[in-house]
């Protein structure tokens, strides 16, 4: 059967089960609305074809070409799509469910309008230069995937696996990584505005020079990470683990760090103006020359830390544990100490 004959049968309303169409030339043909189950399309060329609203279930489609194909609202369920070529496609509402898609190539593609990848293997996939807008990756394997130069917006990565990924020159904004394993990732100088990392592992990551305004790191594990010169205005580090991290010269204006673990970290010359740091655990940390104007350090544990030359104008040190802390050259006298009225109210009802 030729590709043209197959197209005519699809348009006549036929559906296909257990057929072998491997190697078929389907360039530029219309298969929209087609229904295929357990069909072999290995090595087929769908370049420029219309596959709108087509459904493929349990199909073998290895090494097939889909360049510039119309895939809007198409469904791929439990299909084998290894090494497929999707370069340059523009697709919305397409779904890949429990598919094998190792080494697929979406370079320069535009994936938008609630495309879904669920329980799908995308190891070694290439999304270089792709536009990824308002789509979802659910429980996918994205190890060694290449997202360099991608523009990722309003996208959710829920409990996906990452390892040795490439993000260089990518922009990831207004998106969410939930429960992600991203330890050791290089995010240097990237635009990560309003990116949220919830309950994610980010140990030893490098965010140096990155722009992460209003970024969210709630409950994230960020031990030994680098944020030197990063722009973190209004970032949220609520109860995050940031032990042994480097924030030298970072801008943390109005950042929320309540309950965060900051032991053995370096905030030298950082801008912590109006930062919310109530209850932080920051033993043996360095705040040399940092600007802590109006910062709230209520009940902070900062013993054995170094605040030499820090600006503490109207900073709140209520109930702070500052045993053996170095204040040389800091204007601690302009900070607020423990408020007896607040202390009394906090102790009310306690034995």
Structure description:
With 351 residues, this protein is mainly β. It has helices spanning 3-11, 340-347; strands at 16-17, 35-37, 55-57, 75-77, 90-92, 95-97, 110-112, 116-118, 131-133, 136-138, 151-153, 156-158, 171-173, 176-178, 196-198. The strands form 2 sheets. Strands 1-2-3-4-6-8-10-12-14-15 form a 10-stranded parallel beta sheet, with no helix packed on it. It has a 5-stranded parallel beta sheet with strand order 5-7-9-11-13, with no helix packed on it. 48% of the residues are buried.
Please outline the helices and strands:
Elements: H1 3-11, E1 16-17, E2 35-37, E3 55-57, E4 75-77, E5 90-92, E6 95-97, E7 110-112, E8 116-118, E9 131-133, E10 136-138, E11 151-153, E12 156-158, E13 171-173, E14 176-178, E15 196-198, H2 340-347
Parallel strand pairs: 1-2, 2-3, 3-4, 4-6, 5-7, 6-8, 7-9, 8-10, 9-11, 10-12, 11-13, 12-14, 14-15
């Amino acid at each position: 059967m030729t590709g043209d004959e197959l197209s005519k049968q699809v348009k006549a309303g036929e559906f296909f089960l257990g057929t072998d169409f491997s190697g078929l030339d389907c360039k530029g043909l219309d298969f929209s609305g087609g229904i295929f189950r357990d069909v072999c399309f290995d090595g087929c060329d769908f370049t420029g074809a219309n596959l709108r609203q087509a459904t493929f279930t349990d199909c073998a489609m290895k090494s097939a070409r889909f360049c510039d194909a119309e895939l809007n609202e198409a469904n791929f369920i439990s299909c084998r799509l290894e090494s497929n070529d999707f370069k340059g496609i523009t697709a919305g509402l397409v779904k890949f469910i429990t598919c094998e898609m190792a080494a697929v190539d979406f370079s320069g593609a535009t994936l938008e309008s609630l495309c879904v990848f669920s329980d799908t293997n995308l190891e070694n996939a290439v999304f270089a230069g792709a536009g990824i807008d308002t789509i979802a990756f659910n429980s996918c394997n994205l190890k060694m995937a290449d997202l360099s130069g991608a523009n990722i917006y309003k996208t959710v990565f829920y409990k996906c696996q990452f390892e040795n990924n490439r993000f260089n020159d990518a922009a990831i904004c207004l998106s969410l990584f939930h429960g992600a394993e991203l330890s050791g990732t290089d995010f240097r100088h990237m635009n990560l505005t309003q990116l949220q990392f919830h309950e994610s592992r980010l140990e030893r990551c490098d965010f140096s020079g990155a722009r992460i305004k209003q970024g969210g790191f709630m409950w994230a594990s960020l031990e030994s990470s680098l944020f030197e010169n990063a722009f973190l205005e209004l970032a949220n580090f609520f109860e995050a683990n940031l032990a042994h991290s480097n924030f030298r010269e970072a801008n943390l204006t109005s950042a929320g760090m309540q309950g965060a673990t900051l032991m053995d970290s370096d905030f030298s010359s950082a801008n912590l103006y109006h930062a919310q740091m109530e209850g932080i655990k920051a033993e043996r940390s360095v705040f040399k020359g940092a600007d802590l104007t109006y910062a709230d350090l209520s009940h902070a544990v900062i013993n054995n830390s170094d605040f030499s030359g820090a600006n503490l104008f109207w900073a709140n040190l209520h109930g702070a544990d500052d045993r053996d802390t170095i204040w040389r050259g800091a204007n601690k006298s302009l900070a607020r100490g423990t408020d007896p009225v607040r202390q009394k109210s906090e102790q009310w009802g306690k034995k």
